[in-house]
Amino acid sequence: MIWDAVTGFAAGCLATAVMSILQLPFWRVKGVEYVLEWHENVGIVMRLFKNIGEGRALVYSFFFHFLNGGLAAAAYKIFLNFLDLLTFFGPFLLGVLFGLFLWVFTLAPIHKPLTGLPVFGHPLGTGPVLLSIVLHMVYGVIVTYIITNWSIA
Prior knowledge:
Blueprint: H1 2-30, H2 36-48, H3 54-82, H4 85-89, H5 91-115, H6 127-149
Helix pairs in contact: 1-3, 1-6, 2-3, 2-5, 5-6
């Protein structure tokens, strides 16, 4: 089971890297508030380190972005050992569902408490929400394909 966690964590970090690369142009044009995940992690860093500027907080926030991505995928990989959802849904649909699950249960509930901005009714419109949901689905699909096709042990 330890190798499942390691495989899952690595898959999550790789998928988070892809997600981050895809988020980069939106951050450059619209700012950190447009990229919901980055904005939340900046909020975490700024709460942990009181005297830090937003620019430095953004750099430090990637630790949490990759940690969250890795841990979520590690838990997902272990969870799939107990329920054979892959056979029922297939890797693509299961990945999409995993990404949506993460968005609904991890991002949406904590966004406003961490950032002060609502997820729905966001001041920058629907773009940040749509970007976040789509990229969570991309993350879920990447993780699912990696953990079903890549075995360390």
